[in-house]
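Lab notebook, design round three. We kept the backbone fixed and only want residue identities now. Task for the bench partner: fill in a sequence for the structure below.
Input structure tokens:
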């Protein structure tokens, strides 16, 4: 069974930076598509960034130019570098992994890490 463990959240002032990490285990990380989602209080969970097994990336319009997703396949870890943070970025951030094993799709979620942007 796959596991994802996020780290790096916390309290930061507007304009500041944070780097989230997500350590994966129990599945083939290198062939998985990895995502970062977030969920703010009273709002639905939204997709923030995606990185494919080949390293292709995509980010939501709301964070484009400020957030960068990357991965280290040797360390089975995906990162989310968040710069120029705004109060609207306050949310619980979740790591997500998707892939196929024996032609069956798997989907794994982390437990989430809180990011609070406030002065």
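Proposed sequence:
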């Amino acid at each position: 069974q796959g596991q994802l463990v996020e780290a790096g959240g916390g309290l930061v002032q507007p304009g500041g930076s944070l780097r989230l990490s997500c350590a994966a285990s129990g599945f083939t990380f290198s062939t998985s598509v990895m995502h970062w989602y977030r969920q703010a209080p009273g709002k639905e969970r939204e997709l923030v960034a995606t990185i494919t097994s080949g390293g292709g990336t995509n980010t939501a319009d709301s964070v484009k130019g400020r957030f960068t997703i990357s991965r280290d396949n040797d360390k089975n870890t995906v990162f989310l570098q968040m710069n120029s943070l705004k109060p609207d970025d306050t949310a619980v951030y979740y790591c997500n992994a998707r892939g196929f094993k024996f032609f069956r799709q798997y989907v794994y979620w982390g437990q989430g890490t809180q990011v609070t942007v406030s002065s």
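Keep this in mind before ordering anything: The CA atoms of residues 76 and 92 lie 22 Å apart.
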